[in-house]
Amino acid sequence: MTLNQLKYIIEIADTGSMTTAANNLFIAQPSLSKAVASLEKEMGITIFARSNRGVYLTEEGTKFLSYARQITEQTELLENEYKSAPPPKRVFSVSSQHYAFVVNAFVELVREYGREKYEFTLRELKTAEIIEDVRTHRSDIGILYLSKFNHEVIKHILQTQEIRFEKLFTAKPHVFVSKTNPLVNKKSVTLDDLKSFPRLTYDQGIKNSFYFAEELHITEDSPKNIIVSDRATLFNLLIGLDGYTISSGVMSSDLNGDNIVAIPLKSDERMDIGYIVSADRPTDKMTERYLEHLINYISNYNA
Hints:
Elements (H helix, E strand, L loop, with lengths): L2 H13 L2 H8 L3 H15 L4 E4 L2 E4 L1 H25 L6 E7 L3 H13 L5 E7 L2 H9 L5 E6 L4 H10 L2 E9 L2 E5 L12 H4 L4 E4 L22 E4 L2 H11 L3 E3 L5 H4 L3 E5 L6 E8 L6 H18 L1
Parallel strand pairs: 3-4, 3-5, 8-9
Antiparallel strand pairs: 1-2, 5-12, 6-12, 7-10, 7-11
Helix pairs in contact: 1-2, 1-4, 5-11
């Protein structure tokens, strides 16, 4: 195995085409194919599968790619350290359910590295997509929650995908409503109090199992239901239709303004909000730094 072979694998994976990768690498396609075949034989795995549209990573190829990226990135760091080259571009990606505190921590991370080269990604996604992003190493970290209702199912899925869950904090259930909602003056509300108002939930796509829902008490009967795909739309409908959604109660006026308020919900449920990472690879320094910002924001909020 050579460093060039690892670079070849990365280029093919990024382009999805042997021809394009060969052109980008300035080598002949037969030579590239031979190098890949030699590496696959040496490792005893199949890294790429072929289709009419090009090539794509196999499951074992996806895992191999994550290690290949780590090796090439560490090599670049070593070369830059001793060749006095400019610092490498910093790369970080997070996939999350729709939480303002995730965005706040992301903002702080970007500000911290604002004078350096970087490529950061923040995706607010469906629950199944978050798990898939972490499994395939598209994201370094995912943010989601466990409850009494979904705990066993989600934990089982994570274990089968070799993904580790670490709790950040436990939140008591709240409802988000607009400050003009008739419920706003209540110290707390019950599920019965909510039945006359539209319930807003996030779309979970084709994997719309109740266990993937972002909202607690998703199986409770609700005569008025609206499904949305993004946080801005949900907040607009909270205001425009006097709707509600069930969440953690952790809000950010910096990002969401002052038109939304959180009211405690009488419930025996809980939200163990935490992060997920691959169990088979160490947490890198960028992810650890993001977690520090995340924990700091949560600590200040709960202080």
